[in-house]
Design goal:
By secondary structure, the protein is an alpha+beta fold. The chain has a domain of about 70 residues: Winged helix-like DNA-binding domain superfamily/Winged helix DNA-binding domain (Arc Repressor Mutant, subunit A, Orthogonal Bundle). About 70% of the residues lie in helices and about 10% in strands. It has a three-stranded antiparallel beta sheet. A hairpin with a 2-residue loop joins strand 2 and strand 3. Helix 1 packs antiparallel against helix 4.
Length: about 110
Amino acid sequence: MITDSEMDGVFQALAHATRREILDHLRDEPGIPVGQLAKKFDVSRIAVMAHLSVLERANLIVSEKDGRTRKLYLNAVPIQQIHQRWTDSFSEHFASRVTTLKQAAEQAAKQGE
């Protein structure tokens, strides 16, 4: 389970549009080298590296050294953990409500026959 502190880091990392765009690129191009990723943005490589640092601290990206190149990958696990924190209990509640509604509709349909 994700801690409150880790969750704060994820939300902070996702709060910036450039970092969300970086994650979009990593989703679409797993293993993209840092230099190639940096070219996609109209900011300095140093600025991109600063954003990558925030994303790494939030555990949203994984990097792999390949010689002199650093390849980047999206790690969606923290986002999934946050999603599950709120949706699991809500999903159970609404699934139960939908089942009850379905049963009531079926019973009404049988009575109408």
